[in-house]
Amino acid sequence: MPVAIITGITGQDGSYLAELLLGKGYQVIGMVRRSSTVTMERLQHIQDDIIITQGDLHDQSSMVALIEEYKPDEVYNLAAQSFVPTSWSQPLLTAEATGLGVTRILEAIRLVNSQIKFYQASSSEMFGKVVEVPQNEDTPFYPRSPYGVAKLYGHWITVNYRESFDMFACSGILFNHESPRRGLEFVTRKITNTVAKIKMGLTRELRLGNLEAQRDWGFAGDYVQAMWMMLQHPRAESFVIGTGETHSVREFCEVAFGAVDLNYQDYVVQDPRFYRPAEVDLLISDPAKANTELGWKNKTTFRELVEMMVAADLQRLSTNPQGTR
Length: 325
Ligand code: NAP
Ligand code: GDD
Description:
- There is one protein chain.
- Helices cover 41% and strands 15% of the residues.
- By secondary structure, it is an alpha/beta fold.
- The chain has two domains: 3-177 and 217-241, NAD(P)-binding Rossmann-like Domain (Rossmann fold, 3-Layer(aba) Sandwich); 183-215 and 245-281 and 300-319, UDP-galactose 4-epimerase, domain 1 (Alpha-Beta Complex), CATH 3.90.25.10.
- A seven-stranded parallel sheet has the order 3-2-1-4-5-6-11, with helices on both faces. It has a two-stranded parallel ribbon with strand order 7-10. Strands 8-13 form a two-stranded parallel ribbon.
- α5 links the parallel β5 (117-123) and β6 (169-174).
- The longest helix has 22 residues, at 91-112.
- The protein is globular, with a radius of gyration of 19 Å.
- 46% of the residues are buried.
- The structure holds NADP nicotinamide-adenine-dinucleotide phosphate and guanosine-5'-diphosphate-alpha-D-mannose (GDD).
- Guanosine-5'-diphosphate-alpha-D-mannose binds next to α6.
- The site of NADP nicotinamide-adenine-dinucleotide phosphate has 25 residues, from α1 and β5.
């Protein structure tokens, strides 16, 4: 039975990846950081099938102990401080976890068994103020947030360990991906959750920042397949994963409100609090390399994604108004 360690298993992607790997017959080990309440909401349905163990991206020895104890074949590093606005208010924590945390895991693998395959969750946020449209693996980076800068460090240290120590270290440059399990602070889920609340008479308005920002939004369930495919590829490389389409926050609102027969213009209020010090205006992927070399294809359309998220929030609010998913 192959063994996989997932850091960040309690997050959106961690839960989908754990499901995927269990379905493929892996023993799944999830690393979680210690907290006073355990955030297992996304994992309830598979909790009995996985092993949960404590560790923290800030703590080198916990990484080494994890690799020594579980002897994984594959390590997926999904853990990070992943919310872009928080990276301006907590830039050093973001650099420590999202950036240096990658080196800590790579070092643990190098010291214990350098044959272990490694996946790093890199981000389209590294393209930032884009210098090329669409963005592919060769597009130069221009990060626009402390988060983007930290991810860029994580990306390059992954490439560097691959080249320096001949390690099987892959960097997946994933464009935005969403789902009903997305955190409530990210714009897509903030919109679909509020649309559901408005429809049910629980609130009257949706306060947002920049409506013109454009993102290449896909479904997280499709994207975790690409992570696994990268580690099964004959060579460790970097791959861009996205839909190849872009849509604005405004369009997302239009479709989400439209799904419940409402007009977004009647409810959306622009609020300066949600603008960023530096914005990423436009992201759009060119996933040709992943399509041809990995055989990965995006499956879920933009409209399907938005409607899936609105439907899930309506369903959840009608059965469990206090829960987040
Ligand atoms: P997420 O929902 O925010 O999950 C982040 C995970 O990291 C959580 O499990 C969190 O644990 C954990 N974590 C944070 N700090 C940690 C620390 N110091 N030690 C150990 N664990 C820590 O993020 P996601 O959307 O699933 O994204 C997964 C990864 O892909 C992240 O690295 C993200 O930056 C990257 N990424 C995401 C996207 C996207 O659109 N979703 C696109 C490109 C790249 P708690 O539950 O305890 O908070
Ligand atoms: N969060 C949020 N809240 N964003 C808003 C709002 C709001 O009220 N109003 C407008 N936006 C705009 C932001 O300015 C940004 O341009 C866009 O919506 C998307 O914001 P987020 O959903 O917070 O995602 P992100 O693109 O900054 O970052 C996500 O994608 C990255 C990949 O490109 C995160 O998942 C990162 O972890 C990931 O790496």
